[in-house]
Structures
1.
Amino acid sequence: MARNDGRLESQMRPVTIERNTLWTCPGSCQIRFGRTRVLTTARFSDSVPPFLEGKGTGWLTAEYAMMPGSTPKNRKSRGSDGRSTEIQRLIGRSLRAVVDLSKFGPMTLQVDTDVIEADGGTRTAAITGAFIAVIDAIAVQFSPSAIERIVTDSISAISVGVVDGIALADLDYSEDVRAEVDFNLVRLGRNGFVEVQGTGEKNSFDRAALNQMLDIGELCLNHLKIKQKEALGELWKFD
């Protein structure tokens, strides 16, 4: 299948990760998957939700939003909706899978992800970039040496799907809207899925198609792990 940007079926769009994008926040990251661009910030607050008060443990929560000008057609309205709520819960669950909340006491690590430009794969880019912002926030709040004590593994995410009967990795918007099957994979760096979200949007799929999507997805997740490692440099503790 010829993709509109010439990529191979198992190939990601170009990925760039920029750390410390904002001087106002201890952890910040801008990540690009092709034309999709997501800004993440992470900072600690000295409180926890009511259900954790007095328990001596911390919390991590995430918010997700699309900027009004992030899509090419209609202006995206500000404010939460069902899709945003579902995505921010996914981001929070994914990050909590690799952060030992008991290690930083009664504080909340607040992660905010804002989609600046959307061309498919916004939730997977958000998770992948948010991990970088979380590492920097922990390093600033505690110390670089505390990362190994608090964070158990790296985490990244990728979209895969079936378009015109062919399994493709990292769908852009033009592919996503035509996809017969759509999956989002969230995986630990040491291998082990945290979440697999999959839907037969237009057709059902068999085990062979599922295996093919998982295989090409894992290739991309291995690539994202390398990009995260390069971005974090000496803060990388997860091999």
2.
Amino acid sequence: MPPLPTVVVTGGAGFIGSHTVDRLMETGHRVVVLDNFSTGKRSNLARWAGDPALDIVTCDITNGIFAALAPLTKLHGPVERIVHLAAQVSVVHSVANPHVDMTVNYGGTLHVLEYARAHHVKKVVFASSAAVYGDVTQLPVAEETACQPVSPYGIDKLASELALDYYANVHGVPTTALRFFNVFGPRQDPSSPYSGVISIFTDRARAGKPLTIFGDGSQTRDFVFVGDVVRGIVAALGDGNSRMIANVGTGNEISVGELARTIVDLCGGKSTLEHAPPRAGEILKSRARVDRLRDALGVVAQTSLVDGLRATLA
């Protein structure tokens, strides 16, 4: 029996990472999770406890990944593919601490790409972000739209994309960058300062607590369910489509105010809505054009917002 193909998932104990690990394990891969557990949780991977096809290594990507992977590749053979999800994911935190954001998000990506170059990895899939676009005047946002990020987080994601293209062009490392819009779903930690608005709203609405909306609530987002995002990640791990950049969203948008009211209704209508000043570095409108992901990889979001919210609440 041939050895299982090895896929490394950086940030694999986190929200999107653990769902990605689930899908890879289900489809017969050997998976190595690299995570420093600053926000990731071992409990997110409990389903696979004791499975010999999963290795979990405590590793901070800002220090590189060569040493962390060396003992495992000696045992199981080379890493074939990498999903790079490890990141500092808070826009607000990036505004307050731009140097930390650059070190983790851009510096971490360079460490991953250097490993991929040195070990001839067959594909690196990178979790980029809609934050690279900044505030746009025309929706939906296509990948060709000029990128003018308005936060250090967006700047470092864009810089990482440029690094991916450099490594693909100059060193022959096959790469794909996926620009995630607003991902939500089970395992998103509402107690974390890095959490998305849906996990915070659902947590508070379940408890009947007020929901705080930053700004007037008219800002819009394209919320995409984590299961649909994972299908895009796994499809991008295949051969081909090197140097591709693709949006991962639904092609729909909803205002934060309407989102809050929908969640309150789903939770029984006990919470009130409160407003606070808008936060620096956050964009006003967002909706993805998703043709490229559909045409190149055959992936289309299948989960409606309400169905995704119900799954999250459950």
3.
Amino acid sequence: MYTIVLATQKGGSGKSTLAIGLAVAAQQAGHKVRVIETDRQGTLTKWQARRNAGEPIVEAVYDAKMIEPRLEALARDGVTVCVIDTGAGITASTTAAIRYCDLCLIPARPSVADIEATAPTLSVVRAWRKPFAFVLNQAPIRGGHRISDATSALDADAPRDIAEVLAQPFIMMRNDHQDALAAGLGVSEFDTDGKSAQEIKSLWRWTAGKLAGDHVMHEAGELKDASEHSDLEFPIMLTPPAEEPKLPVARVYPTWADNGIDWKAGL
């Protein structure tokens, strides 16, 4: 089973609509899909209440300690894709979801401020050494310079080949996403031939390729263990265990700590 987490520090980035869109697109591609919601706002739970179709089922899991056993149970039941939608901020449940995921997608609107706000989430992802990608979401259809500025900011935040960490395609801001949410549908069900539907389907194909290893997936750097911090609300400053060997790396990039910046300053 593949587990995909949608996470970012900033609210309003479109995590829930992307989670719904990807879950439905994965189901349409033939997967047995479940969705876990850790956000007490309950956007996905309310979406399913409006939905006539039973699948994909949304489960609310707020206790961080229950995420691992629930994922194990879903895998035993034959689920092939699990999508986890998280709330804003870095909470214990978000950290646990990232810890057990196969891929963390970090949505961000194409503005420098939104990109900078992803830094705490990226710190947790790197601490657990998880594969990740940014998703430029709610991009204006006529906003080329904004997208260019955002990709430049991403290149500074994640100093590596930007193609490795920037999901394709960008998701444009269209009413279809909100209309589908209100109707209890995925955007690829709401208007199967619409541009938004095609973008989400393409994003799912890109994500599936990432999971299958068609793209470079891992961040270079030391293997770090966060088990002793897994119940903390802000487990960002982590240290590597003495007994764990270091993974061979080709390139090592500076962290906030290397630059003398603590996580509070980066918020």
4.
Amino acid sequence: MNTVRCEAIVLRTYKLAEADLICVLLTRDHGKVRAVAHGVRRTSSKLGSRMEVLDHVDVLLAKGRTELLSVRQVESRGAFDHVRDNYERLAAGLVIVETADAATIEHHADEAFFEMVRRALATLGEAPTPSVVATAFLFKTLAHEGASPVLEHCASCGEDTDLVAFDLAEGGLLCSSCRRGRPVSPEAVALMRRILLGGLAGVLREEGPPGSAEVASIAIDAVESNLGRRLRAARVLGAH
């Protein structure tokens, strides 16, 4: 048995036996892995407070005969402590980690996506509207997956004006002649373009940018369609 040290974000945990915990970790260098934290649910455990969902840690993992690893040591990086200080930040953080869990496969390293998750969680401490951070992360996940919606012109005919609807089957915005799916406001169109086509930094500095609830609903539907699963935490964005 050998060991590996990783930088990781805890995406999900679930109980095992009387005192153990299985942790789903997104690591920078090894992708998503599952590891058992033995005895972590005992009050005397030194690991417990550092192996909770949303924790950012350095972890020493032992490799065994199966793909399920074993947690040997944990050191907190403490970068996301701010997320739990506020309900809206916590809710948005849970959307981010649930999406990251759904969008990744085990043992497939993707440092760029890890960094995207890390930055999104770090940004929650600075953004005046945490739900917008989660919405932006959903759209950026689509872009990372090569499924970014068509926003520059009508996804059906190519018309670049009078874009009034959004349709998942067509893959983006539609003009008034091709309209189907859901109607979209000019504010929502502008916000989606700022998130994906340039201007995200400004969006994240704004408090409740116009169209944000509408865009959150579109982002959730698009990601759920692309991933083929429902995001339970997404209802906190006020859309589902």
